[in-house]
Amino acid sequence: MSDDTVVVWDESLLAYDMGDHPLDPVRVELTIALARELGILNRPGVRMVKPEPADDALLTRVHAPAYLAAVRNAPRDPLFAGYGLGTSDNPVFEGMHESSALIAGATVAAAEAVWRGDARRAVNVAGGLHHAMSARASGFCVYNDPAVAIARLLDLGAERIAYVDVDVHHGDGVQDIFWNDPRVLTVSVHETPLALFPGTGFPDETGGPGAQGTAVNMPLPPGVDDSGWQRAFHAIVPSVLRAFRPQILVSQCGADGHRLDPLADLNLTVDGQRATYLAMRALADELCDGRWVATGGGGYALVEVVPRAWSHLLAVATGDPIDPATLTPPAWRDLVASRSLGREVPLRMTDDADPSYEPWQPTGEPNAVDRAIAATRKTVFPLLGLDPHDPRD
């Protein structure tokens, strides 16, 4: 296996543009620009790969043919409605099929490179459209690129694939698509569905018949900070991955759990997000011989958060992590200013936060985070042969 890292990128990925909408492609443009100015994309062993669109054969591994036809036809029909399209969340836009298929193709290219041994790790920051269902657009997502890539890995012979989703919103589309497939473990750490879209992701969602225990959900109460989030992540994710023994790890790394994100209610920092990326890389190294495919996802603090968070992700995937105290390059700040976005430009790659945490223990006076941890462990751990009360599991 090559030790290279593939970064799938081309400016044409920015065509996934819903117009005046929270999911602004400028966040991806600014991420790549920041990573380039920091020298991350020029590191030895980093290969930039231009994506090709996923064809219908790939897309219909996940999506219904009638849905693909609707996505193609919707921009030509001013009265189109249906399949979740034409809403404020999922407006119809020109080139919708083509740009969505390109994002799916980019994540598939990342997955293929890792599975075939051409790279140890691969990243598509434009991907992570995890809410799309088999026959319905949802949550700003038209085609579910992580699910398409996972289906491709299954076709290539993968027998155990772990999908870990750290977006603030539940990874409902990927969970739904693989609900009955015991070969795919879906793990989602997110804000409670009692407070946030999409209203799913409770602990008792554990997988369909024959696949029970392969859906794992860790919903967290609003207001959780880095220490609580890290405590929950480490109380659940390493244990279930070790029990499942995946051959490859696929991650959705939405940055919308940050305290500045306008669409959610958690209080994470870029320092905490960086710590999570390091933890996922360590788990891939421990369990999957390093095989890790990472995608972007949500994130709506377009300047203040997403470019820094995903530049940290790219740094972790390509080698040494970036020192949090690193200054953002002046050329990048100038680029942000030229976009006239009216946002405060961060001067450093840190929020000056300490992402350390106290490991979970089944004793003491439980707080809201510990109650959530206990609920998930009690529900799903026995299905995986784990002891919900043993902190070593």
Topology:
Elements: E1 5-8, H1 26-37, E2 46-49, H2 56-59, H3 65-73, H4 96-115, E3 121-124, H5 145-155, E4 161-165, H6 172-177, E5 184-191, E6 215-220, H7 226-244, E7 248-252, H8 270-287, E8 292-295, H9 306-318, H10 330-338, H11 368-380
Parallel strand pairs: 1-2, 1-3, 3-8, 4-5, 4-7, 5-6, 7-8
Describe this structure in words.
By secondary structure, the protein is α/β, with parallel strands linked by helices. It is about 35% helix and about 10% strand. An eight-stranded parallel β-sheet has the order 2-1-3-8-7-4-5-6, with helices on both faces. Helix 7 runs parallel beside helix 11. It is globular. The two termini are about 30 Å apart.
Low-confidence spans: pLDDT under 50, at least 5 residues? none
Class by alpha and beta content:
alpha/beta
**Helical amount among residues, as a percent range?**
25-40%
Oligomer, anyone? Answer: single chain
Number of strands: 8
Helices and strands, in order, run as EHEHHHEHEHEEHEHEHHH
- Treating each run of at least 4 consecutive H or I residues as one helix, how many helices? 11
Query: What is the overall silhouette?
Result: globular
What proportion of the residues form beta strands (DSSP E)? Answer: 5-15%
Q: How is the main sheet built?
A: 8 strands, parallel
**Rg measurement, Å:** 19 Å
Average the pLDDT over all residues and give the rounded result. Answer: 97
Biggest sheet, spatial arrangement of strands: 2-1-3-8-7-4-5-6
Distance between the termini: 31 Å
